[in-house]
Structures are given as C-alpha cells and as structure tokens.
Design goal:
This protein is mainly α. It has a single domain (5-142), classed as Arc Repressor Mutant, subunit A (Orthogonal Bundle), CATH 1.10.10.10. It has helices spanning 5-20, 28-35, 39-51, 76-84, 99-122, 131-142, and strands at 55-58, 64-67. The chain has a two-stranded antiparallel sheet with strand order 1-2. Helix 2 (28-35) crosses helix 3. The longest helix has 24 residues, at 99-122. The relative contact order is 0.16.
Length: 143
C-alpha cells in the first residue's frame, strides 16, 4: 500500500495542531512553514479536513485552523478518508482471467482493504504524539 503525500501532510498538520492544544487557531501559513509543506497544497488538505469535521476553521485576523475533536477521537482512517476518500481496492480490468480467478482476486483485495481499514481505525492521533509533548499540551490547556 502506498501512502500519499496528501495523507502524510494531513497527519503532519494534525499533529502540529494537536501539540498546539487549545492555544487558538493556527494560520495555514504557519503550519506550512513549521512543517515545511507547500502552503497551497496544504490549504486544500485543510479544507478537506474541515469538510470531514476533523478541523474547524476560524475566520478573521486571529483566524486559522484548530482541531474540531480531541486527538484521541481522530483515527488514521478518518484522516485517510478525509483526504483520499474511502479505501476501496483498485483492481485493473481482469477480463482476461477466468471468472473464478477474477472473483477470488477481488475477494482477496476486499479482505486486504478491510484489514487495512481496521488497522487504521485503531491508531488514533493521540497515539502519534510523543508523551512529553502530550503533557506540555495538557499543561497549556490548564493554564
């Protein structure tokens, strides 16, 4: 399975926002600069994350992006589907194969996709945050 740069940038931006905690919205330009990501590309990714309900956008001078949910409630599957769509096996035309072989291959690819979805669902954004950083974010929230 190939993980796209889109997914990688989405996870990276979400981790930056997770560490930011409740400090307020972070502008796209700041996320792009700190994460060394192309700002225009990141902007589209952030829009997809807003549309999916993972992020919220705040307009205005002090606007930007912030998590709409707690990091522990955002799975990698949520992120993947927000920016790439549903994980569906992409199988080239199998017209030359006998019907039995074609059905068996399709069934196998569907099982692989289901297993991948289940694995992605189990990993939460909070699992990807270093413990020291996680504690610093909690201290910011309580200050």
């Amino acid at each position: 399975m190939k993980v796209s740069r889109t997914v990688t940038y989405a996870v990276q931006a979400l981790l930056q926002l997770s560490v930011n905690g409740e400090s307020g919205p972070v502008p796209c330009g700041q996320l792009a600069k700190e994460g060394r990501m192309p700002e225009r590309f990141l902007l589209q990714i952030l829009r997809d994350l807003v549309t999916s309900g993972i992020l919220r956008s705040v307009r205005g001078v002090d606007g930007g992006y912030q998590l709409a949910r707690q990091p522990a409630s955002i799975s990698l599957e949520d992120v993947f589907e927000a920016v790439n769509g549903t994980l569906v096996p992409s199988v080239p035309p199998l017209d030359e194969l006998p019907d039995f072989a074609r059905q068996k291959l399709l069934h196998t690819f569907e099982k692989i996709a289901a297993t991948t979805r289940a694995s992605l669902t189990q990993v939460k954004l909070s699992d990807l945050i270093e413990p020291a950083t996680r504690n610093a974010g909690k201290q910011q929230q309580t200050s």
